[in-house]
């Protein structure tokens, strides 16, 4: 019995060691029986890969180490969430190291007051370099705009990491961001499937300069071109290049303007007006995809404006049709009244009731009123002739229908493809805000690629700390994303990842 117990125990120990080895190899936590309460934000750290960037353990930085993180904005929901991740990592890092007061690791987050303001971001970078931080993390709005500053940082021994947007500068130590290629491809096939794999789509790109924008725009188009032959990317709109379109729109509005009329200026045309114009240039447009939160909301505003214009146009056509019908009815009634009178002012009915039965007299419509066999024969002959004419007309009509049936159905199908009610345009995009969530809930937006900005901020601080410690970094750290729709937006697992 003792031997049997020892054998069983040995087998159990071997199994435990094997499980432990597997757990270590796959970097999974093994349940030990002890329970610990996870912080609420842990759900945002779990998707980060590699897992070494999910926590601050083992980062033994010197007291007073200065980490500077620079984003693309301070105001949007996305960048506020990035800042929260940065600040949480700083708090965890100081708690882990037991630093307080002046000994604390100093971590700052700065961004332009106006989103995507390149000039302000460069100014912030200049100011931070003058403070000589130990490391800088930056989300480049324009990957070529800061080359001079990066050279200066390198000369002064200040390493650089990138976040959100990659950068081609050779000295970048690590890049922390969403896998933009995969995320954009997800958005592309979701949109293509939603429109039935057929039709024109438009891409609204937040700028033409950042690596993020370039990656998302290209990956979206690649997915469509490679896997959806009946879907066409009809327009790729770069929002930092809309001024040229606005100028064109103003010129078109001013053509044929009467002398003394007020000229249209491009400054009075909004971005939504410009996108609405493009929607109307593609009346068969089936879908729009925005590459970030601002472009997704821009698409929504433009669709709303286009829908309002569509409804007004439909109402105007209906009113014109009713006016035309009324005029035609009036002319018909007038003509009927004239035809009903005989020369001399008598009506045909009065003429028929007279004594004469000349050749020009109308056949009696009522056999009792007509009162003679001749009238009945005439009526029968006329009836037979009418029937023959009607049959001939029907036959001719049938032949025409037979010849044109295929053509008319093709035309109907083409018209259906060429003209889409803007309310039926499928809108999808990136990121999330209160307005986007409301539009998603109400069905105006069909799907969103929701990134993990908290995770981006947190992992950026970890990557910055590893850079200072010269402990080595991955070339790229992926922070994950979700696909959120009206159907799953209220799931508990999704709710924890949403930011507003």
Question: What attributes does this structure have?
Answer:
single chain, 500 residues, alpha/beta, Rossmann fold, six-stranded parallel sheet, six-stranded mixed sheet, 16 helices, 12% strand, elongated, disordered N terminus
Task: Explain what you see.
This protein is an alpha/beta fold and 500 residues long. Among the domains are: 169 residues, Rossmann fold (3-Layer(aba) Sandwich); 154 residues, Response regulator (Rossmann fold, 3-Layer(aba) Sandwich), CATH 3.40.50. A six-stranded parallel beta sheet has the order 2-1-3-4-5-11, sandwiched between helices. The protein has a six-stranded mixed beta sheet with strand order 7-6-8-9-10-12, sandwiched between helices. Helix 3 crosses helix 15 and helix 9 crosses helix 10. The radius of gyration is 37 Å and the shape is elongated. The two termini are 64 Å apart. The N terminus is likely disordered.
